[in-house]
Design goal:
Length: 113
């Protein structure tokens, strides 16, 4: 394989992985099943965004407040996190995992529900 083709393939794979992370790491179907089985559905958008519409059963802890409010969540329960585009939910997932939450799934954008 020539170098330009190899570089193109590598760039494509990297772009795919970045985009996959931006849209979330769990499918809508899997997220719905987790929530139906008792996972916490966590909306990490702002209070205003949450107030103008959210997924049924979701609790709101804005990502900027998550570290201070983490005690409101049970680290033994699975969590499905979402936001507006996927950036804040990815950040929230990393924070929750760093604080010992073992079963955190990132839906990404709310529209993926």
């Amino acid at each position: 394989m020539s170098t330009p083709i190899l570089v193109g393939v590598v760039l494509f794979v990297v772009a795919f992985l970045v985009m996959r992370n931006m849209v979330g790491g769990i499918s809508s179907e899997d997220a719905k099943k987790l929530v139906a089985d008792g996972a916490v559905l966590l909306d990490v958008r702002t209070t205003g965004e949450y107030g103008s519409g959210h997924l049924p059963g979701a609790i709101n802890v804005p990502v900027q407040d998550l570290e201070q409010r983490i005690s409101e969540l049970d680290p033994t329960k699975p969590v499905v996190v979402y936001c507006g585009s996927g950036a804040r939910s990815a950040r929230a997932k990393r924070l929750l995992e760093a604080k010992g939450f073992e079963a955190v799934s990132d839906l990404g954008a709310m529209s993926r529900w």
